[in-house]
Specification:
mainly alpha, 14 helices, single chain, about 70% helix
Length: about 400
């Protein structure tokens, strides 16, 4: 009888034994007869090369964000007045080609209102700044799409990882289109506006925000694949620390995103004092626009005030997170992540205050923007260290 059951398999053996042997206790009853269903094999681990590729991609995105910030600070973003995926990859070479490119730029508001006395040599500088940013964006796209196709063909991507990779490749393509949509807002004629030509702060924030999402997703996935997980006991304190770390990471992201509105409105040049704004803690023109909601995104004073509040809240939350982490026994690598997060936060606050007091010099402002990426990276590292073990 046992030989018959073994030959028929576990499921057939249960049917042979009668109706009382079905249900949740089938495995336990079959074990009495030396029978057991074979467990499904675990999913194959994703190779470490995929994790290293995603970390490299996140570094490429960080380079694009920093270069984009420098392009914005040098007011170079509107120098290329059209967009072609392949055609514009070849820069002007002859004097005639440069003069033709310069004539195209002269037809748009930035030249007529702000740079009407610009020379061809000065135009070449801002053109090459924007050209470098666009070409770097193309490099980022290829860095995602080509290795993704290779890993897919080799069968190195699990089913969930395939969905993640498709989302990342789609986001990097969307990012390029969003960049041109942003530039177009600065090239449009605005007869009712007396302000200098600039891109829409809303589109700038969307462009930076999507880049930060792409960076965060790539870095998080890469760290999750490469960092060995700690066998941390699931205590109430650890759960609270994990939630605290996730909330702090979201606050860091929001603070970095608010910096896009500061850059888009040149709000860093409004009140160049700290901790007060001029002679007051709360300036008189904080709610000068009507309706009131417009002030949050369109009033330079309110935008700078909000960025200050978010910056102070971020460094306060990070300090509290570090002090709370000291009360819990954590592995050495996790303690290093918490300490690094606090150190980068202090550095970022110093950079932000210095940039404000010195009237936003380009090198210091670019370093401050790079510091926001470093802070976000440290927060993601700590969150990855505290992630829950898969069941």
């Amino acid at each position: 009888m046992l030989r018959v059951l073994r030959g028929a398999g576990a499921g057939a053996g249960a049917r042979l034994l009668g109706p009382g042997w079905g249900g949740g206790g089938t495995r336990a009853r079959l074990r009495l007869f030396g029978l057991q269903q074979r467990p499904s094999p675990p999913p194959a681990p994703v190779p470490a090369a995929v994790g290293r590729w995603l970390l490299a991609c996140s570094g490429a995105v960080a380079g694009a964000v920093v270069l984009g910030g420098v392009t914005r600070l040098t007011e170079s973003g509107l120098s290329m007045v059209d967009w072609h995926l392949v055609k514009e990859m070849k820069p002007p070479r002859t004097q005639q080609e440069w003069e033709a490119e310069f004539r195209k730029y002269q037809q748009f508001p930035e030249f007529r209102i702000l740079n009407h006395d610009m020379t061809l040599t000065e135009f070449k500088f801002i053109w090459y700044m924007e050209y470098s940013h666009r070409m770097w964006g193309r490099v980022v796209g290829l860095a995602y799409i080509l290795p993704a196709a290779y890993f897919w063909r080799k069968g190195w991507l699990s089913r969930p990882m395939k969905g993640c990779v498709l989302a990342l490749c789609g986001l990097v393509c969307f990012q390029g289109l969003l960049g041109w949509y942003m530039v177009k807002s600065g090239l449009e004629e605005k007869p009712d506006s007396y302000d200098i030509p600039r891109v829409s702060q809303y589109r700038l924030a969307a462009h930076l925000g999507s880049a930060l999402v792409l960076y965060s997703a790539s870095l998080w996935t890469g760290l999750s694949l490469l960092l060995p997980q700690h066998q941390l006991p699931e205590t109430r304190q650890l759960l609270r620390l994990r939630h605290f770390a996730h909330g702090t990471t979201a606050l860091v992201f929001l603070t970095a995103l608010s910096g896009a509105f500061v850059a888009g409105l040149d709000a860093g040049l409004v009140y160049n004092s700290f901790p007060k704004m001029g002679e007051r803690w709360i300036p008189d023109d904080l709610l000068a626009f009507s309706p009131t909601l417009r002030n949050i995104f369109e009033n330079p004073t309110t935008v700078q005030f909000d960025h200050r509040i978010l910056g102070v809240a971020t460094v306060t939350a990070i300090t509290a997170l570090y002090l709370f982490s000291r009360k819990i026994p954590l592995p050495r690598r996790t303690r290093m992540a918490a300490a690094s997060l606090l150190a980068v936060a202090c550095m970022q606050v110093g950079l932000g205050i210095s940039t404000l007091l010195l009237y936003v010099p380009t090198p210091l402002a670019a370093t401050h923007q790079s510091g926001s990426l470093a802070l976000l990276s440290a927060a993601l590292w700590l969150a990855a260290e505290l992630r829950r073990l898969p069941k």
